[in-house]
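Worked example

This section walks through a single chain of length 218. The input is the sequence exactly as stored; nothing has been trimmed or padded.
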Amino acid sequence: MLLSEAGCELHQTSIASSARQRLREDLFQPGKAGARCLLDHPQVQEVVEQLRYELTTKGHLPPGSVAIQAIAFDKTAETNWKVTWHQDLMFPFAKPVTSPGFELSSMKDGIAFARPPKRILEALLAVRLHLDDCDEKNGPLRISPGTHLSGIIPVADVPELVRSHGQKVCLADEGIALLMRPLLLHASSKAIEPEHRRVLHLVFAPDELMTEEWHRRV
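Given that input, the structure is written out below as C-alpha coordinates.
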Protein backbone atom coordinates (compact mmCIF):
# COMPACT_ATOMS: atom_id res chain seq x y z
CA MET A 1 0.00 0.00 0.00
CA LEU A 2 1.20 3.49 -0.84
CA LEU A 3 0.47 6.61 1.19
CA SER A 4 -0.60 8.63 -1.84
CA GLU A 5 -3.07 6.04 -3.13
CA ALA A 6 -4.25 3.95 -0.18
CA GLY A 7 -3.76 6.63 2.47
CA CYS A 8 -1.34 4.48 4.47
CA GLU A 9 2.06 2.88 4.11
CA LEU A 10 4.43 0.83 6.26
CA HIS A 11 7.80 2.40 7.13
CA GLN A 12 10.82 0.59 8.54
CA THR A 13 12.14 2.97 11.17
CA SER A 14 15.66 3.19 12.54
CA ILE A 15 14.41 3.75 16.11
CA ALA A 16 16.78 1.66 18.25
CA SER A 17 15.41 -1.32 20.19
CA SER A 18 16.68 0.29 23.41
CA ALA A 19 14.64 3.43 22.67
CA ARG A 20 11.55 1.33 21.99
CA GLN A 21 12.06 -0.49 25.29
CA ARG A 22 12.24 2.83 27.16
CA LEU A 23 8.95 3.87 25.55
CA ARG A 24 7.31 0.64 26.68
CA GLU A 25 8.58 1.18 30.22
CA ASP A 26 7.81 4.90 30.52
CA LEU A 27 4.57 5.51 28.63
CA PHE A 28 2.33 2.66 29.76
CA GLN A 29 0.75 1.67 33.06
CA PRO A 30 -0.82 -1.72 33.88
CA GLY A 31 -4.59 -1.77 33.43
CA LYS A 32 -4.73 1.51 31.50
CA ALA A 33 -5.53 1.84 27.81
CA GLY A 34 -2.98 4.60 27.34
CA ALA A 35 -2.21 8.29 27.77
CA ARG A 36 -2.64 11.51 25.79
CA CYS A 37 -0.66 14.71 25.32
CA LEU A 38 2.80 13.14 25.56
CA LEU A 39 4.79 15.60 23.44
CA ASP A 40 6.52 17.03 26.51
CA HIS A 41 7.97 13.61 27.38
CA PRO A 42 11.76 13.54 26.63
CA GLN A 43 11.66 10.02 25.16
CA VAL A 44 8.80 10.95 22.87
CA GLN A 45 10.64 14.08 21.71
CA GLU A 46 13.67 11.97 20.76
CA VAL A 47 11.46 9.70 18.65
CA VAL A 48 9.79 12.73 17.05
CA GLU A 49 13.19 14.09 15.99
CA GLN A 50 14.29 10.78 14.47
CA LEU A 51 11.03 10.11 12.63
CA ARG A 52 10.83 13.68 11.35
CA TYR A 53 14.31 13.31 9.85
CA GLU A 54 13.50 9.94 8.26
CA LEU A 55 10.14 10.97 6.85
CA THR A 56 11.36 14.33 5.56
CA THR A 57 14.27 12.58 3.83
CA LYS A 58 11.85 10.16 2.15
CA GLY A 59 9.52 12.98 1.10
CA HIS A 60 6.63 11.95 3.33
CA LEU A 61 6.84 15.21 5.33
CA PRO A 62 7.62 18.72 4.08
CA PRO A 63 10.69 20.39 5.62
CA GLY A 64 9.99 22.08 8.95
CA SER A 65 7.04 19.87 9.88
CA VAL A 66 6.10 19.80 13.56
CA ALA A 67 4.57 17.13 15.77
CA ILE A 68 1.25 18.32 17.19
CA GLN A 69 -0.03 15.24 18.99
CA ALA A 70 1.33 12.17 20.77
CA ILE A 71 -0.83 9.39 22.21
CA ALA A 72 0.18 6.03 23.67
CA PHE A 73 -2.32 3.18 23.72
CA ASP A 74 -2.35 -0.52 24.50
CA LYS A 75 -4.87 -3.29 23.89
CA THR A 76 -4.75 -6.00 26.57
CA ALA A 77 -7.22 -8.33 28.30
CA GLU A 78 -7.98 -5.48 30.75
CA THR A 79 -8.24 -2.82 28.04
CA ASN A 80 -9.69 -4.66 25.06
CA TRP A 81 -11.85 -2.35 22.97
CA LYS A 82 -13.56 -2.11 19.60
CA VAL A 83 -13.44 1.02 17.42
CA THR A 84 -16.01 1.52 14.65
CA TRP A 85 -15.19 3.06 11.27
CA HIS A 86 -14.21 6.70 11.62
CA GLN A 87 -11.84 9.49 10.58
CA ASP A 88 -9.52 11.32 13.01
CA LEU A 89 -10.92 14.84 12.91
CA MET A 90 -10.44 16.40 16.36
CA PHE A 91 -7.08 17.82 17.40
CA PRO A 92 -5.77 19.76 20.44
CA PHE A 93 -5.32 23.53 20.47
CA ALA A 94 -3.77 26.00 22.89
CA LYS A 95 -7.16 27.61 23.58
CA PRO A 96 -10.76 27.35 22.36
CA VAL A 97 -10.83 28.13 18.65
CA THR A 98 -12.67 31.11 17.16
CA SER A 99 -11.42 31.30 13.56
CA PRO A 100 -13.70 30.52 10.60
CA GLY A 101 -13.37 26.94 9.40
CA PHE A 102 -12.43 25.54 12.81
CA GLU A 103 -15.47 23.71 14.10
CA LEU A 104 -16.87 21.52 16.91
CA SER A 105 -14.91 23.27 19.63
CA SER A 106 -14.88 21.32 22.91
CA MET A 107 -12.84 20.75 26.06
CA LYS A 108 -11.37 17.39 27.11
CA ASP A 109 -9.40 17.08 30.36
CA GLY A 110 -8.86 20.84 30.34
CA ILE A 111 -7.51 20.94 26.76
CA ALA A 112 -9.29 22.61 23.84
CA PHE A 113 -10.11 20.38 20.86
CA ALA A 114 -11.59 21.26 17.49
CA ARG A 115 -11.92 20.07 13.92
CA PRO A 116 -9.54 22.02 11.65
CA PRO A 117 -10.52 23.00 8.10
CA LYS A 118 -10.33 20.33 5.40
CA ARG A 119 -7.15 21.75 3.86
CA ILE A 120 -5.32 21.33 7.17
CA LEU A 121 -6.71 17.86 7.82
CA GLU A 122 -5.52 16.76 4.37
CA ALA A 123 -1.97 17.90 5.19
CA LEU A 124 -1.66 16.00 8.48
CA LEU A 125 0.26 12.73 8.74
CA ALA A 126 -0.25 10.21 11.54
CA VAL A 127 2.66 7.91 12.41
CA ARG A 128 1.84 4.82 14.44
CA LEU A 129 5.05 3.34 15.86
CA HIS A 130 4.45 -0.29 16.84
CA LEU A 131 6.08 -1.22 20.14
CA ASP A 132 4.84 -4.82 19.93
CA ASP A 133 4.14 -7.19 17.06
CA CYS A 134 0.63 -6.65 15.72
CA ASP A 135 -0.99 -9.75 14.20
CA GLU A 136 -4.51 -10.90 13.32
CA LYS A 137 -5.26 -11.98 16.90
CA ASN A 138 -4.64 -8.78 18.86
CA GLY A 139 -7.13 -6.41 17.24
CA PRO A 140 -5.10 -4.85 14.41
CA LEU A 141 -6.04 -1.65 12.64
CA ARG A 142 -8.29 -2.02 9.58
CA ILE A 143 -8.37 0.64 6.88
CA SER A 144 -10.55 1.36 3.85
CA PRO A 145 -8.01 2.22 1.14
CA GLY A 146 -8.38 5.53 -0.67
CA THR A 147 -11.13 6.96 1.50
CA HIS A 148 -8.79 9.77 2.62
CA LEU A 149 -9.49 11.35 -0.78
CA SER A 150 -13.19 11.81 0.05
CA GLY A 151 -12.75 14.77 2.41
CA ILE A 152 -14.73 14.98 5.64
CA ILE A 153 -17.19 12.12 5.34
CA PRO A 154 -20.72 12.37 6.80
CA VAL A 155 -21.37 9.54 9.26
CA ALA A 156 -24.31 8.30 7.18
CA ASP A 157 -22.03 7.80 4.15
CA VAL A 158 -19.37 5.75 5.95
CA PRO A 159 -20.88 2.23 5.47
CA GLU A 160 -21.31 2.67 1.71
CA LEU A 161 -17.78 4.05 1.28
CA VAL A 162 -16.31 1.10 3.16
CA ARG A 163 -18.32 -1.28 0.99
CA SER A 164 -17.21 0.39 -2.23
CA HIS A 165 -13.54 0.82 -1.27
CA GLY A 166 -13.15 -2.43 0.62
CA GLN A 167 -10.96 -2.91 3.67
CA LYS A 168 -7.51 -4.19 4.52
CA VAL A 169 -5.90 -5.32 7.77
CA CYS A 170 -2.69 -3.55 8.81
CA LEU A 171 -0.27 -6.02 10.37
CA ALA A 172 3.18 -4.92 11.50
CA ASP A 173 6.19 -6.17 13.40
CA GLU A 174 7.50 -4.34 16.43
CA GLY A 175 9.57 -1.34 15.33
CA ILE A 176 7.56 -0.73 12.13
CA ALA A 177 5.67 2.54 11.73
CA LEU A 178 2.37 2.80 9.90
CA LEU A 179 2.02 6.13 8.12
CA MET A 180 -1.61 7.15 7.76
CA ARG A 181 -3.65 10.13 6.65
CA PRO A 182 -6.08 11.01 9.46
CA LEU A 183 -8.92 11.37 6.93
CA LEU A 184 -8.57 7.68 6.04
CA LEU A 185 -11.48 5.62 7.35
CA HIS A 186 -10.16 3.14 9.90
CA ALA A 187 -11.43 0.80 12.61
CA SER A 188 -10.33 -2.08 14.82
CA SER A 189 -11.97 -5.08 16.47
CA LYS A 190 -11.45 -6.46 19.94
CA ALA A 191 -8.42 -8.71 20.26
CA ILE A 192 -9.19 -12.42 19.95
CA GLU A 193 -6.18 -13.34 22.08
CA PRO A 194 -5.37 -10.13 23.96
CA GLU A 195 -1.70 -9.43 24.48
CA HIS A 196 0.16 -6.15 24.51
CA ARG A 197 -0.45 -4.10 21.37
CA ARG A 198 1.41 -0.96 22.39
CA VAL A 199 1.53 1.89 19.91
CA LEU A 200 2.94 5.41 20.03
CA HIS A 201 0.65 7.47 17.79
CA LEU A 202 2.14 10.76 16.56
CA VAL A 203 0.61 13.39 14.28
CA PHE A 204 2.75 15.74 12.19
CA ALA A 205 1.64 18.98 10.52
CA PRO A 206 3.33 21.37 8.07
CA ASP A 207 4.80 24.37 9.85
CA GLU A 208 2.53 26.81 8.08
CA LEU A 209 0.94 30.03 9.28
CA MET A 210 -2.32 29.28 11.08
CA THR A 211 -4.94 31.46 12.69
CA GLU A 212 -5.08 29.04 15.65
CA GLU A 213 -2.24 27.69 17.78
CA TRP A 214 -1.72 23.96 18.31
CA HIS A 215 -1.68 22.77 21.90
CA ARG A 216 1.95 21.66 21.46
CA ARG A 217 4.51 21.98 18.64
CA VAL A 218 7.68 19.88 18.79
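What to look for: Helices lie at 3-6, 17-27, 42-57, 118-123, 158-165.
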